[in-house]
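Submission checklist for the structure archive. All mandatory fields must be present; incomplete records are returned to the submitter.

[x] Identifier: 5-hydroxyisourate hydrolase
[x] Organism: Streptomyces zaomyceticus
[x] Residue count: 120
[x] Sequence attached
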Amino acid sequence: MSISVQVIDSTNGCPVADLAVTLHTREHGTWHEVAGSRTDSAGKVGSLSDRVLPYGSYRLVFETGEYFAERAVDTLYAEVVVSLHYQGDPSRLHVPLLLSPFSYTTYRGNVPRTDAVGQV
C-alpha cells in the first residue's frame, strides 16, 4: 500500500506547502514512525513510504500548529492525527485534509489507476 496526502487551507482555498507529515504504524499496541515528509507547493505528498506497506492500522500526523504559527494565526489544533485501519486495495490510499484554524475534515480520496491499458 502507498499512502498519499493533500492538505488544503479551507479558509483561503490554497494548498498548504511545506507542512510536516509523518506516518506511523501500530505494532503490539505501540505506534512507530514509518516515514515522514513535507508537502510540496500543491500541498501534496505523493507517497509517504518508499516501500509497500501491509494492510493494518496507521496514523498520519500533520504538524498544523507550525503552519498557523508561521502565519500568526491562533488555532485549536497543534497537530491533526488521522488514525485509520486500511483493508482495501493494497496499492494506494489517498487522504485529503481540509484545514482551518478551528476545524478540519478528512476523507478517503481517489487515486487514479495507472496499471490498466487505456486508463489514467
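[x] Structure attached
Curator remark: DSSP finds one helix and nine strands in the chain. The two ends are 19 Å apart (CA to CA).
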